[in-house]
Amino acid sequence: MANVLVTGATGFTGQYVVRRLVEAGHRVTAFVREGSRRTPLEGLAEGFVVGNLDDSRSLGQALEGRDALVNVASLGFGHAQAIVDAVDRAGIGRAIYFSTTSLFTTLPAATKSVRQQAEDVVRGSTVPWTIVRPTMIYGDPGDRNLIKLIRWVDRWKVVPVFGPGTYRLQPVHADDLAQAVVAALGCEVAAGQAYNLSGGTALSYNELVDLIGELLGRRPRRVHLPVSVSLIAVDLARRIPLAPRFSREQVLRLNEDKTFSHEEAARDLGYRPITLREGLAREVAMHREGAG
Length: 292
Ligand SMILES: NC(=O)c1ccc[n+]([C@@H]2O[C@H](COP(=O)([O-])OP(=O)(O)OC[C@H]3O[C@@H](n4cnc5c(N)ncnc54)[C@H](OP(=O)(O)O)[C@@H]3O)[C@@H](O)[C@H]2O)c1
What we know:
Layout: E1 3-7, H1 12-23, E2 27-32, E3 47-50, H2 56-63, E4 68-71, H3 80-90, E5 94-98, H4 110-123, E6 129-134, E7 137-138, H5 146-155, E8 158-162, E9 168-169, E10 172-173, H6 174-185, E11 193-197, E12 203-204, H7 205-216, E13 221-225, H8 227-237, H9 248-253, H10 263-269, H11 276-291
Parallel strand pairs: 1-2, 1-4, 2-3, 4-5, 5-6, 6-11, 7-10, 8-13
Antiparallel strand pairs: 9-12
Helix pairs in contact: 1-6, 2-3, 5-7, 7-11
Bound molecules: NADP nicotinamide-adenine-dinucleotide phosphate (NAP).
């Protein structure tokens, strides 16, 4: 069993990853920032090392004596080169890096080239690497994604949909990602590979709204706004205190296909994500408990 350093361990997905690594018998140390909220990891992680990915040396020191790194923290902030340099210098046995399927967006998103460069840097590492690319992550009311829609549908009868709502998406449960990470760590074939990790169900945004309504016992009425009107609406909303915040990019991304095959992960990692109905039912139940 490996001695694993996990970055981003205090984040939403990181907590699932730490739990699954510990369950699999690995010894986990969390690389945390000064002031990070460690409480969710207490009793799980064997220890904490304080550092910051802005400071490559702190990561290098934290990697001393480790067998592996699981870098859950985002590669989208320009840290990739510093992380990979620290990993290569430390000469650990294995590294897993989180990327994102948003890399494949057809939009001219500013983050796209940063993400692509980050993956290129990882591919140049001398330490056996695996890249995992989640789609939109959900799992419990901490997810910052589907929980927003769950809360909205629970509260309001009308759901605004930016565009026709027919483009499909494939959200992934954080626990499926965590299991994939554990599998990749112990899988030689996974070294030098990048895997798209999508969820068990691909569906349109309209179907997603309806599914959430069904699980909540509500009948939401979808009101479609043309994309051009939606863009004006999100700009205006930014000027209204307490109005829901959406970015222009979010509106545009709802109007492109966001489904990705996870066939390669199924083949190499035995990846079998749960259905969205199953995962959402759990999240809706947690939402209800929290609200109740
Ligand atoms: N959320 C999604 O839908 C989604 C979709 C596709 C891919 N991804 C990727 O999946 C991964 C996990 O996403 P998430 O949403 O679960 O993450 P998250 O909740 O936003 O957590 C981010 C984590 O990174 C840590 N972190 C941030 N900056 C740091 C720095 N300079 N030094 C050290 N640690 C730092 C944070 O620590 P603190 O506790 O100190 O803040 C936190 O633990 C990320 O790589 C993300 O890009 C996410």
